[in-house]
Structures are given as structure tokens and as C-alpha cells.
Write a structure and sequence with these properties.
By secondary structure, the protein is an alpha/beta fold. The chain has two domains: 215 residues, NAD(P)-binding Rossmann-like Domain (Rossmann fold, 3-Layer(aba) Sandwich), CATH 3.40.50.720; 104 residues, UDP-galactose 4-epimerase, domain 1 (Alpha-Beta Complex), CATH 3.90.25. It is built from eleven helices and 14 strands. The longest helix has 25 residues. It is globular and about 60 Å long. Bound molecules: uridine-5'-diphosphate.
Length: 343
């Protein structure tokens, strides 16, 4: 069975491609390679089509199996990771975010409906990458965050993802489009095999930046605020191992293929770690120190985002394998040394 993975050359998408392959699926990747890496096609031995999700003619070719990359096999479902995900950039250039994340997703949903009709049936199912950024700054009494927590995104990135969630609701009601929405908390870590991992340019995420400061690729790590209402004053996040995210996609896909419907799940560990906790864990794992200094708060950072993922555990039998921060850091460290070398 062939699955189309948009954004499969990116960080989370590439790990999901491997999970699908290990689960016995054939995979075709569609990626515009703006932030993704072409080399992943080789690492994963997967056909990679460079293109835009908003290219309807290309989508039709891929979904129907007419595109050469599909080797004659029509696509049975889509995992949709492709998106721009820099919050700051989304505030300075919202048009780019709405066009890419929202506009292109609308084209994809229409193509799924059309292809289903062409086959004389329901729209093809979709697994959609959403984010805890759709919750905005949740009230203290809403933490840990459940899926029914009010969604009030505070930047165009979060709103673009929230809007696609709304589209999926409407397309489900009107056309019967089956979907699973996953709201990720902080994706982190790397494949323990050491050949896949986080490689953003520019890098803005805490764990790779901490490792950069440890290896000397950067002089220091800035801690964005230490006066938050948290035990050590730094922000708390729910870091979830990318392999556990990938595994959830496999389970979500199987559920959709078996029973259809519309589902939404948080993906997190249920445990929070502060910026200071991450720094300490990185020092412990690498046995090295780093320079840090406290900088201004970063605009739009909520003090605390921690999921409850009980719904995914209950309905998908999803069990995070690498729930401990230390394992996330260990795997990120192996990848980081391989990708960037040691000083
Ligand atoms: N952070 C930090 N210094 C950095 C990058 C991030 O202190 O150089 C903090 C950030 O304020 C947040 C946490 O680390 O509280 C996680 O940030 P990241 O950008 O990794 O993920 P986000 O939570 O924004 O999705």
C-alpha cells in the first residue's frame, strides 16, 4: 500500500517515513526542499518528488499513481507534514505562512476528495501535523492540556495550523474526508540509528542550540527569560521523542484505514522540563559544560506547555518508548556529533 508523505524530507516527516517503511508501507515523498534535505531520499531509499503541495496537477498525478515515482501504485492515504514552522517569520511574513500552510493544504484536501470520487468512493484519508501552538497561552487550570482545551493561537503559524484543523472538520462533515489531527508538543531527539535527526537552518530550537554551545559551534546559549512563574523561572515544555511521534503516525494511519472517522490527539509525554532541566540533562549526557546567559523573554513564549496524551494512549494504544528527557538528549547528541562533528 502506497502512502504519500508531504514534507517527508524534513525532521519529523523523515522519521515518519522510516516508521511507515518499517510498518510495511511503500512511501513516496513530496517536498519543496525549502527547509527539507534532498539527501534524506538516499538515507531512506525513498522516491522524492520536489514540488509544492499546492500544485494540483502534480498532486493528481501522485494520488492516482500516474506519476513515475509511484511505480504504478495509486496512493491510499496522505501524511501531511509539509509546512513552514518559524513563529517569528510567520509574524513578519504572514502571507507566506498562510499561502504555504493553509492555501496549499486546501488544494490537497480538494485533491483528496476528487481522487476519492474518481475511484467511486470516499476521499482519501489524511493524517495532519498540527501543533500545541494552536492552544496559544493556555490558562493555568488547563494544564496538562487536553484536546478540548480552548484553541487561541497567538501567531500566524499557530493560526495557519488551526485553520487547517477547521478545514478538516468542514471537509469531514461535508464530504466524509477521514482524518487524524496530531497536535505535537516539542518534537526532539533523533533516530537512535544516528542517520536521521534535526537539521534546521536557521536553527531556533533549544536542544540543538544547547548542543551547539556545548561543542563550540556557538559561543553560548541564551536562556530566554528566567522570571517566569515556574519553579526555576525558565519556561517549561513537553519534549516528545521524534521516534515516538513517528510511531503515533503509524498507529493513526492504521486506525484511519481500518475505520475512517475524524480524530484529534495530543502527542506529548505528560511531563514538563524547564529550559534549565534541558541544559542540565545535556551537560550530564555529554559530560561537558557550556556558556549560558539570561536574555530577554522571547515574544509569544507561554510559561508552560504540557500535554496530556491519554487520548492517544487509550484510542491508539500509543506508548511513548523514549519518555525520558535523558534518552532524547542521548539520541540528539549522537546525531549532532555525526552531523556536525566534534570540536
Ligand atoms: N529557548 C531558549 N533559548 C534558545 C531557544 C529556546 O531559552 O536559544 C527556550 C524557549 O524560550 C522555550 C524553550 O526553550 O521556552 C523551547 O523553545 P523551542 O524554540 O525549542 O520550542 P518552542 O517551545 O518554541 O516550540
Amino acid at each position: 500500500m502506497t502512502i504519500l508523505v508531504t514534507g517527508g524530507a524534513g525532521y519529523i516527516g523523515s522519521h515518519a517515513v522510516r516508521a511507515l517503511q518499517q510498518g510495511g508501507f511503500a512511501v513516496v515523498v513530496l517536498d519543496n526542499l525549502v527547509y527539507g534535505h534532498a539527501s534524506i531520499a538516499e538515507t531512506l531509499a525513498v522516491p522524492l518528488v520536489q514540488g509544492q503541495v499546492g500544485d494540483r496537477a502534480l498532486l493528481d498525478q501522485l494520488l492516482s499513481g500516474e506519476h513515475p515515482a509511484c511505480a504504478g501504485e495509486p496512493v491510499q492515504a496522505v501524511l501531511h507534514f509539509a509546512a513552514y514552522a518559524y513563529v517569528g517569520e510567520s509574524m513578519s511574513d504572514p502571507a507566506r505562512y498562510y499561502r504555504n500552510n493553509l492555501g496549499d493544504s486546501l488544494v490537497l484536501l480538494e485533491a483528496l476528495v476528487a481522487e476519492g470520487r474518481r475511484r467511486g468512493g470516499d476521499p482519501l484519508p489524511l493524517v495532519f501535523s498540527s501543533t500545541c501552538a494552536t492552544y496559544g497561552i493556555p490558562a493555568q487550570d488547563q494544564i496538562p492540556i487536553r484536546e478540548d482545551c480552548p484553541q487561541r493561537p497567538i501567531n500566524p503559524y499557530g493560526r495557519s495550523k488551526w485553520m487547517v484543523e477547521q478545514l478538516l472538520g468542514d471537509f469531514g462533515a461535508a464530504y466524509g474526508l477521514p482524518s487524524v489531527i496530531f497536535r505535537y508538543f516539542n518534537a526532539a531527539g533523533a533516530d537512535p540509528a544516528g542517520d536521521l535527526g534535526e537539521d534546521h537552518d536557521p536553527e531556533t530550537h533549544l536542544i540543538p542550540l544547547t548542543l551547539d554551545a556545548i561543542t563550540g559551534r556557538r559561543d553560548h546559549l541564551k536562556i530566554f527569560g528566567n522570571d517566569y512563574p515556574t519553579p526555576d523561572g525558565t519556561c517549561i515544555r513537553d519534549y516528545i521523542h521524534v521516534i515516538d511521534l513517528a510511531e503515533a503516525h503509524l498507529l493513526g494511519l492504521r486506525k484511519l484505514l481500518a475505520e475512517g472517522g475524524q480524530h484529534v490527539y495530543n502527542l506529548g509525554t505528560g511531563h514538563g522540563a524547564s529550559v534549565q532541566d534541558v541544559i542540565s540533562a545535556a551537560q550530564a549526557v555529554t559530560s561537558r559544560g557550556l556558556q549560558t546567559y539570561v536574555a530577554e523573554r522571547r515574544a509569544g513564549d507561554p510559561p508552560m506547555l504540557v500535554a496530556t496524551a491519554e487520548k492517544a494512549q487509550r484510542e491508539l494504544s500509543w506508548r511513548p518508548r523514549y519518555g525520558e528527557l535523558r534518552m532524547i538528549l542521548e539520541h540528539a547528541w549522537v546525531w549532532h556529533q555525526r552531523r556536525f562533528g566534534q570540536p
